[in-house]
């Protein structure tokens, strides 16, 4: 991991963070926002995605609120290392509805890991459903997440399916000086993931320190996407323009 590059990236984002947060109106349809960030390591569902190196990300998001539901769509790009690819692209769209203290969210995310030839193109689609309980003016939230992949996971053997779906329970508490979050997720028959994080807004940027404990599921055997039990400590900073 190149610490000089990481420190330089954090410094650059701190410089950019002096710009005020901004949303751009798109006529009467909705708003457009841009996000840029860097993290010491990119971890997804307990598995490192960028060979223990810093990951850079950028995203553009569009939100169109209506009297019934909010529609949203976006595109993001993040550093990732795999079979002849170095970036992971995601296109997503969804709807959101708040009923009292509960927000319901349903989305479709297409992830593309573009290799250097047609034979290396790797894309899949996730269907994700979320429910978040966040009482008005309360310092805490509680959430549930369920994601199913269009591939229905992989089959390392005739009797075992790995990663067919991912489910998570999470919560957060705003202490004033910072917001603490904790989550427990299971990638079916693959990896159990516990995450504890602390997020702090500073100089118009969001800093997140995360501890991630990833436990390889015994039932996964040689078919697990995680080579062994792992622990990660990551630091990330992002800025929305």
Q: What does it look like?
A:
There is one protein chain. The chain has 241 residues and is mostly beta strands. The protein has one domain: monomeric porin ompg (Porin, Beta Barrel). It has one helix at 3-16; strands at 24-26, 30-39, 43-44, 47-48, 55-65, 70-79, 87-99, 102-113, 122-133, 140-149, 154-157, 160-162, 165-174, 179-187, 191-202, 205-216, 230-240. The strands form three sheets. It has a twelve-stranded antiparallel barrel with strand order 2-5-6-7-8-9-10-13-14-15-16-17. Strand 11 (154-157) and strand 12 form a beta hairpin. The protein is globular, with a radius of gyration of 19 Å.
Strand order of the largest sheet: 2-5-6-7-8-9-10-13-14-15-16-17
Give me the CATH fold name.
Porin
Would you identify the CATH H-level superfamily? monomeric porin ompg
CATH class descriptor: Mainly Beta
- Overall spatial form: globular
Q: Rg, please?
A: 19 Å
Number of helices: 1
Terminal CA distance? 28 Å
Question: In terms of structural class, how would the helical and strand content be classed?
Answer: mainly beta
- Provide the number of structural domains: 1
Helix-strand string: HEEEEEEEEEEEEEEEEE
Indicate the mean pLDDT: 86
What is the subunit arrangement here? single chain
Helicity, as a percent range: under 10%
Sheet with the most strands? 12 strands, antiparallel, barrel
User: Unreliable stretches, pLDDT < 50, 5 or more residues?
Assistant: none
